[in-house]
Amino acid sequence: MNKQDWKLDSRYGMSHPHKDIVEVEHYRFYSAKLASGMAAIAIFLATILFVWNDGDVNPITITSRGTENSRFDKLTWDLGYVGYGYLWGEHPSWQHTYQQRCLVDNGYGCTSETTPWEFAQMMFVDGWDNLLTLLFLLVFVFSFQFTFFFLRKPAPVRFNRALGAIYTWRRGQLWILPERNFDFTFKTEIDIASSRSDSGPMRIKLCSGRKPKKRRTFLLGDYTTQLPYYGRCFGEDLQRFMTSVDGLDLTPVPRRHPYLWWQWSIFGKRDLPDDIDQRAADWIKQQGIEVPPPSDKAEWEAREAWKAEEAAQKLADQKRQAAEEEEAETARQSALSAARRLFRNK
């Protein structure tokens, strides 16, 4: 199956690492990574064009005081409240303010002996609100600029048919749902980026492993799909997988989800804990939930029959071994009795 046809398949977005396990990715990760990447590129370009370039893009203007300010000087003007231009760095306006307005005109409460450090303290007290606004602006800009590099691919959601549970790991805790409670919702959504309005994710609510009454909605599937009503078809396929042994053909489904270059982050992707299956099994046991077999019982019954046969064979082996040990003990006792009789006759 070629890539284009695969994106039109309702199984697109699944991986199949084990016969009884399907893992599903998070639908929103792609769009979040795309948006953060575009924001990072836009901010980097804006920084280059409007701050660091000279010439027409960074014109020099003459203030009313006769100082020459560039665009960069205008953008960094508020840094004068923390000493920029007279305590550290060079800024025409703030150099003029300290040299003329402070030392010569004795403005701002200065004297002719006011040091740059003392003047910086005066300016900080006078302009702390401007600095706070600037700080929020910088945090806002830099968060958008560097989110792409820290946004990690989340751990997949695992559908375990043998265990009869759906679960994942998020923010240090297990989120789980028994198969008997498995239900999903779907609604179309308008996506400007792909110019579509006939698709959307499958939505499922999982319970907190610590507080079962607490629920969280997970949006599952692959954002890059081109199948109309994808979330609904995707959810129906997963229901067939969970409730039947051979109800869903998983032949074209890859064993692992790919980790593409644009999904990279500084801290790598998130993975499910190695013991998550045991954690899920323990949770199911604590809740007193019995795992029901799939509705298509052909292979399931064969598997149970094989288990029963193995148990019967093991029991037969134990009985045979016990019989052999008993026979050996009887023979030993007979030999001892014969030896005693022979000794008495002598």
UniProtKB/TrEMBL annotation:
Transmembrane stretches, start-end: 34-52, 131-151
Bias type Basic and acidic residues, positions: 311-323
Region named Disordered: 311-331
Domain of life: Bacteria
Keyword annotations: Membrane, Transmembrane, Transmembrane helix
Name of the protein in its database record: Uncharacterized protein
Species for this entry: Thalassospira xiamenensis
